[in-house]
Amino acid sequence: MTDRQRIGIFGGTFDPIHVGHLIAAADLQAGLSLDMVLFVPAGRPPHKPEQAISENHHRLAMLELAVSGNPAFAIDTTDLDRVGPSFTVDLLGVLQQRLRPAELWFLMGEDSLRDLPSWRDPNGIARQARIGVARRPGVDVNLSSLLDAVPEARGRIDLVESPLIGISATDLRRRVSAGLPISYQVPIEVERYIRECGLYVRK
Ligand code: ATP
After folding, report:
1. Which of 20, 41, 70, 132 has the greatest count of CB atoms below 10 A from its CB?
2. Which residues have C-beta within 8 Å of that of residue 21, sequence separation ≥ 6?
3. What is the pTM for the complete model shown?
4. Computed from CA positions of residues 57, 59, 60, 66, in that sequence, does the dihedral angle turn out positive or negative?
5. What is the pLDDT of residues 112-165, one digit of tens each?
6. Which residue has the least CA distance to atom 26 on ligand 1?
């Protein structure tokens, strides 16, 4: 047994953070015996260049409201502070240096695991962190073809049991703009923030 800290890195756009993220993070933390989970909001996600993303300060404020009650959850703004497109492989390099000698897990939903081969240097990602995965409704990854595409992920993917939560940020934004409720899909403080700032309302 080593006493290295075990840290989960949960990257995402978090526009907005919702209970699907929070439940997945809590189950990944428990399932992988992580000491803490760092939520790392993405600056400008390379795979979402066309989509208008809420300003950094809004996404950060919502994250703070959502995680502040959990001492094992924290936020890292490395990616927001960087200029240019944010690639996970670069982010992990920076965090690995900073958090050394901790052991890192990059946490994701199953849809992100499915897309991993299209990310920049997926083998580099797998070298720098183990990959902790929570299931996501409607996604069924073929692990053997994934490992053919990303051979260095072999033996480094940890699937964790978690309830399937059919909530996505895309759907939440659509619901707000259509005047539909989002109650209980995001923490109540986050819902209040979205209403007060008029986020996701079609201008
Ligand atoms: P969008 O709909 O805008 O793409 P999203 O809801 O997928 O957003 P992101 O911020 O893009 O949220 O996701 C960050 C990470 O959280 C990704 O790894 C994604 O797979 C995971 N995730 C998001 N929603 C869920 C969910 N309901 N269950 C499990 N994992 C999730």
Report:
1. 132
2. 10, 12, 14, 39, 66
3. 0.95
4. positive
5. 999 999 999 999 999 999 999 998 888 889 999 999 999 999 999 999 999 999
6. 20
C-alpha to C-alpha distance for 71 and 148, rounded to whole angstroms: 39
Q: Which domains does the chain have, with CATH numbers?
A: 6-165 (3.40.50.620)
The residue whose CA has the least distance to atom 7 of ligand 1 is 168
Pocket test for ligand 1, best of 29, 112, 131 (most atoms within 8 A of CB): 112
Look at residue 74 and give its three-state secondary structure.
Answer: strand
* Cα separation, 87 vs 124, whole angstroms: 11
CB of 107 shorter than 6 A to ligand 1: no
The pLDDT tens digits of the residues spanning 55-71 come to: 999 999 999 999 999 99
